[in-house]
Amino acid sequence: MMLTYKYLLRPNNHQSDRLAFLLEQHRIVYNHALQQRINIYKETGECIGYDTQCKHFRDIRRENPDTLRLVNASSLQRTLRRLDRTYTSFFRRLQSGEKVGFPRFKARSRFNTMEYTYGDGCKLRTSKRKYVFLYVQNVGEIRICYHRAIPEDTRINHARITRRNGRWYVSLSITLSATPVQRTPTGKPVGVDVGLRRIAALSTGELIENPRWLRNNLARLRRLQRHASRQVKGSRRQHTTYQRIARLYEKIENQRRDYLHKISQGIVKKYALIAVEDLKLTFMNRSRHLARASYDAGFGIFRRMLEYKAESAGIPLIAVSPVNTSQACSGCGRIVPKDVSVRVHQCLHCGLTLDRDVNAARNILMLALQNPPGRGGQPITWADMPSVG
Ligand SMILES: [Zn+2]
User: Fold this and answer.
1) In the predicted structure, residue 296 carries a pLDDT above the cut 60
2) Can you name the residues that pair with 353 across neighbouring β-strands?
3) CA of 324 to the centre of ligand 1 (A)
4) CB atoms < 10 A from the CB of 32, how many?
5) Less CB within 10 Å around the terminal CB: N or C of the chain?
């Protein structure tokens, strides 16, 4: 299983200048390589590939000992590879008739990432006094907020160094080699309706709302955005507001991710089986009219967290089709049509009255239990169904 661990870096002034310098070299190469592709296409009508560009920039690198030579070679290749991916996906999508923009030249503010093959110019080091540093070639040993240790028995594949709002981060992508121990399922199965308005509703009747501080911060964000829109375009004051917006946005993202980690962990710990809606289908059904980008982000993140946490804990997670989960009655199974705005499910046939999302969660669970996964233990029976309190 692949996971990403992200850490804040604490470079000193000299080191952050060096990081910025290296990043700028990557950006120059990216833009040059894009220009080269365009030029050659115009002249000859042919596309040049990654390999040709690699050779080309290897020579250029050799000729520039003070600039490009300082960039790690395989790291540079990864930037070329990145352009190659952007480029080929552009043509693929063009051919399939999608509306796509041509790959862009990157402005300084839009180029914030460089990648390393782990161990080649970028590596974690532990000092004698057990402090952890990130060694980066031609930058040195950078202090790192090592807030959680990388588990033993893992392989680190690559490192991604990112600049955001004036801070530097490193994301390490790791492969867990140990296969998770299958936990003997204790507790009951649960259906989870992951929502846009609230984080989730469980089939047990438990509702997990967006916390108040998160809502407050979202309201602050909207206020700031309104404020910026009334300021003189391109003015220094507007620029300052935009910086504040960017920082607040980052903070909200962090708060939300942190909160979602705790919530999803709690669910995985407590229940023996988790039923959710199939993510792809759900997105297609719902996001067209309901979604706001910021809510959407949290929605997808939470769903994926449940997925990988369940996997690493050895808990089965079943994705069911989202068709009718909110319309059907979880008491009698008949369809009770209702608009998105109706928050309470009220069945005309059997008289069941229930929160709309809890009703959906119960339906999700029932669908999942009709097709129990191939578990070694006993199949889950209807007797395991949680009662709604
Ligand atoms: Zn009913």
Assistant:
1) no
2) 346
3) 14
4) 16
5) C
The pair of three-digit structure tokens given for residue 278, joined into one six-digit string: 């199939």
Q: What length does the chain have?
A: 389
Q: Rounded to 5 degrees, what are φ and ψ at 180?
A: -65, 145
For ligand 1, the distance from its centroid to the CA atom of residue 319, given in whole angstroms, is 24
Letter for the amino acid at 51?
D
C-alpha 187 to ligand 1 mean position (Å):
27
DSSP string over 313-328: HT--EEEE--TTTTTB
Report which residue type is found at 82. R
pLDDT in tens, 161-207: 999 999 999 999 998 766 656 556 667 899 999 887 788 999 999 99
Domains of the chain: 1-178 (no CATH), 189-372 (3.30.420)
Amino acid (1-letter code) at residue 167: R
**What's the DSSP call for residue 94?**
H
CA of 332 to the centre of ligand 1 (A): 4
Q: pTM score, two decimals?
A: 0.77
Tell me, what's the pLDDT at 135? 97
Distance 368 CA to ligand 1 centre (A): 19
CA of 331 to the centre of ligand 1 (A): 5
C-alpha 387 – ligand 1 centre gap (Å): 15
Q: How far is the CA of 344 from the centre of ligand 1 (A)?
A: 13
Q: Give the pLDDT confidence of 127-153 residue by residue, as tens digits.
A: 888 899 999 999 999 999 999 898 887
CB of 279 within 8 A of CB of 319? Answer: yes
As beta bridge partners, residue 304 has none
Helix pair angle (236-270, 212-230), 10° resolution: 160
| Alpha helices by DSSP H, 172-211 | none
The average pLDDT across 15-25 equals 97
What is the greatest pairwise CA distance in the chain?
A: 80
The radius of gyration of the chain from alpha carbons, rounded to an integer in Å, stands at 25
